[in-house]
């Protein structure tokens, strides 16, 4: 499976689109907002204030969160400038995602977005920069601010080594690290994360000016150890149920591994320390509810929608293109209906809270 070709969020603005079902990610952005504002304030106070701030949002997707980050950044810089009685800089903003992203939805909303900004005309220029952030996207010494929200847990490839020498899958009945996975599976996923994240940091390091700000949030795993189920583990169990029902072939499940890894804070810090280009400024871990999605589609609370269904809507918006390309489009309605019911059962006994981390670093 070529991740670049199958990883993109559900397009458009319909009922199953990412645009309609991205409130889990919005929740994470809101929880990290205070830390982002503090980091931007420090960047502005740290000395040279460029006349044109060049920034990028990596893994911007297309939906209400995409331009929200741009707005939040501009508002923060503007209020600092007003306080310091300085001229407001120009913003050159790049929106990055994989080429399969629905950039057209964003482009269509730009005219009304420019009108909402409290800026004079010709102060903000937004462009797209498609491509993988696991590699170079910009010239040397170019960016002042790099942001990424809820994207860095995606891997560039399915981890290597998830098959024995004879070709049998190590994680046969699962699609991601699960309670029943052998420990070697977690190690392979961690290896893949370490390689990707190191490449991410060295690419950004070349592209950023000294003192530039790198700020990101991502899905994470509790440092405290012990197994906590993830939504992807429950998707894997649902697919396994469909194998037992005779709806999906066993070999289809055995040959699918999710290109994803949610690291611990320590794992992130360790790779950053080894790579060595960035200085850690601040970091925070917080909880994010799995079931805050669906409100925008009018199927949230008060519309007879269960918590399980809301989780299913969010995961469908994120994972459907990839899962459909392997298991078949015709399996998707059944998969997400079963998953919603399973999630409702799970949430009777569990809190349904995931872990996320926010990290602020500056380029040395
Ligand atoms: C869950 S969405 C988050 C979108 C948005 N930042 C938000 O907070 O709503 C993750 C995005 O990361 C993108 N992504 C994953 N891997 C990527 C890569 N290697 N390069 C660029 N974008 C990537 C996906 O295509 C997807 O649009």
Describe this structure in words.
This protein has a single domain, classed as Vaccinia Virus protein VP39 (Rossmann fold), CATH 3.40.50.150. The protein is 43% helix and 17% strand. The chain is globular. About 2% of the residues have low confidence.
Characteristics:
364 residues; 43% helix; 7-stranded mixed β-sheet; globular; alpha/beta; 10 helices
Bound ligand species: S-adenosylmethionine
The DSSP helix count reads 10
> What are the segments in which pLDDT stays under 50 over at least 5 consecutive residues?
294-302
Q: Which radius of gyration do the C-alpha atoms yield?
A: 21 Å
- Give a quick account of the main beta sheet: strands, pairing sense, barrel closure: 7 strands, mixed
Kindly state the number of beta strands: 7
Strand content: 15-25%
Q: Cα distance, first to last residue?
A: 37 Å
- From the coordinates shown, what is the CATH architecture? 3-Layer(aba) Sandwich
CATH class group: Alpha Beta
**CATH-assigned fold name:** Rossmann fold
By secondary-structure content and strand pairing, the structural class works out as alpha/beta
Order of helices and strands: HHEHEHEEHEHHHEHHE
- Binned, the helix content reads 40-55%
CATH superfamily: Vaccinia Virus protein VP39
Strand order of the largest sheet: 3-2-1-4-5-7-6
Number of domains: 1
Shape: globular
Question: What is the average per-residue confidence, as pLDDT, rounded to a whole number?
Answer: 86
């Amino acid at each position: 499976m070529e991740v670049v070709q199958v990883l993109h969020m559900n397009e458009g603005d319909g009922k199953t689109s990412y645009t309609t079902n991205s409130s889990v990610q919005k929740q994470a952005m809101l929880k990290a907002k205070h830390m982002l504002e503090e980091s931007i304030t420090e960047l502005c106070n740290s000395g040279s204030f460029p006349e044109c701030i060049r920034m990028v949002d990596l893994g911007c997707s297309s939906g209400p969160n995409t331009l929200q980050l741009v707005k939040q950044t501009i508002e923060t810089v503007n209020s600092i400038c007003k306080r310091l009685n300085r001229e407001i800089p120009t913003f050159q903003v790049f929106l990055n995602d994989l080429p399969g992203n629905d950039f057209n939805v964003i482009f269509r909303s730009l005219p009304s977005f420019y009108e909402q900004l409290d800026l004079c005309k010709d102060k903000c220029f937004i462009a797209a920069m498609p491509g993988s952030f696991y590699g170079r996207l910009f010239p040397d010494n170019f960016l002042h601010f790099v942001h990424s929200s809820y994207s860095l847990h995606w891997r560039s490839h399915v981890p290597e080594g998830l098959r024995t020498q004879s070709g049998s899958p190590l994680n046969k009945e699962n699609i991601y690290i699960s309670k029943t996975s052998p420990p070697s599976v977690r190690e392979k996923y961690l290896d893949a994360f370490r390689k990707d994240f190191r490449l991410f940091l060295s690419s950004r390091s070349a592209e950023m000016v000294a003192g530039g700000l790198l700020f990101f949030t991502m899905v994470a795993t509790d440092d405290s150890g012990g197994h906590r189920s993830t939504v992807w583990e429950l998707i894997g169990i649902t697919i396994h149920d469909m194998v037992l029902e005779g709806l999906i072939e066993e070999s289809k499940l055995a040959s699918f591994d999710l290109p994803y890894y949610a690291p611990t804070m320590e794992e992130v810090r360790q790779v950053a320390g080894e790579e060595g280009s960035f200085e850690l400024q601040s970091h925070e871990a917080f909880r994010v509810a799995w079931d805050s999605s669906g409100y925008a589609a009018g199927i949230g609370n008060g519309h007879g929608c269960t918590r399980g269904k809301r989780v299913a809507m969010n995961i469908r918006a994120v994972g459907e293109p990839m899962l459909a390309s392997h298991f078949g489009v015709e399996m998707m309605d059944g998969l997400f209906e079963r998953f919603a019911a399973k999630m409702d059962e799970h949430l009777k006994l569990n809190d349904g809270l995931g872990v996320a981390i926010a990290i602020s670093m500056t380029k040395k």
